[in-house]
Amino acid sequence: MSHEQSEFGANLVALRTIVYREVRRFMRIWPQTLLPPAITMVLYFVIFGNLIGRQIGDMDGFTYMEYIVPGLIMMSVITNAYGNVVSSFFGSKFQRSVEELMVSPVSPHTILIGYVTGGVLRGLAVGVIVTILSLFFTHLQVHHLGLTVLVVLLTATIFSLGGFVNAVFARNFDDISIIPTFVLTPLTYLGGVFYSITLLPPFWQTVSMANPVLHMVNAFRYGILGVSDIRIGTAIGFMLVATAVLYVLCVRLLVSGRGMRQ
């Protein structure tokens, strides 16, 4: 067996091990990782969809419940993909187990892909749960399956990578909650989850276009309902570029070893 084959085999084993550990981690504590977002989304369905939605009426030709469901699904995917990676990788830093990975003959790409895959799988798991729960409140008919799958995968990947960056720079447990609280939550709530930006004055419509979450939510909504406030090609292009840029940044951080020692 050549050196390249041996190295590839070692990295493959490491990747499977990291992914297995990440999945086992959030599945073992499912009452803390999968159940709370499901309960939260049910409350959104009941309060915003049923109670408030009756007063609002239709939006873009759909009932208010139908309109907000894609946004709520994306909200759950975003928060859980991000939260899984930032908490898991920072936990590894805090326990100093990440130092063993850094000195092992494992490629930085393998380490990064393993953690990101775990975040994506948790985001998708919660997204599937929320989608199933939404069927008790409304009827969903996927307009474009391929686009829907592509958007949700790209979104989960982007925020998993973002969570990794946050974990690298975090110095304590308080630091891993700053970005979700003061950046992620406002962007999500102002990202067109509960409304169409066509309801806003022209100036605020323009400002809203700078919100990356708006593009993700609308692209996903187009995949489900066939309606969108933005150009789908622009949204997909942005997500591809964001994924590439964040991936390169994360690999560079791993190679440099910055923030890996507590």
Automatic annotation (TrEMBL):
Pfam families: ABC2_membrane. InterPro entries: ABC-2_transport_permease, ABC2_TM, ABC2_TM_bact-type, ABC_2_transport. Its main location: membrane. It is found in: Cell inner membrane; Membrane. The chain crosses the membrane at residues 34-52, 72-91, 112-137, 149-170, 182-204, 232-255. Residues 28-257 form the ABC transmembrane type-2 domain. The keyword 4Fe-4S does not apply. The keyword Transmembrane applies. PROSITE patterns: ABC_TM2. It is a multi-pass membrane protein. Keywords: Cell membrane, Membrane, Transmembrane, Transmembrane helix, Transport. Belongs to the ABC-2 integral membrane protein family. This is Transport permease protein. It comes from Phytopseudomonas seleniipraecipitans. The lineage of its organism: Bacteria, Pseudomonadati, Pseudomonadota, Gammaproteobacteria, Pseudomonadales.
